[in-house]
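Please, structure for the following, as tokens.
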Amino acid sequence: MTKTQYRFLKLGSILMAVSVALGAIGAHILKKSLSPIALETFHTGVRYHTIHSLSLITLSLFPKTFNIKWTGILFIMGVILFSFGCYSYALTGIKTFVHIVPIGGISFILGWFCLFFSNRLRD
């Protein structure tokens, strides 16, 4: 396992734990205090957070010959900007966070394209 893969495994695991915790908070605590639209926004953040945390863990399992560094970096940026933007907007209603969310979505998309175009460094 390379240093990058090790970091992706560790960070993906922590992000996954946070995702599960936030999902539980949304389902059990915030359900009573947020509007249905705000709660849906929060759950959208959790959904993308979970998918990309698991994807980061999966990247750590790729053969060492694949160049996956930028894919992982973009997934991490996406979780921070998209998911935490959704959480922040749902909890505060501050519109500034809405403008950050699409940048995170673009990060996710670019990460998936990086994975598609990742090449084997050697045979």
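The two ends are 17 Å apart (CA to CA). The first helix runs from residue 3 to 28.
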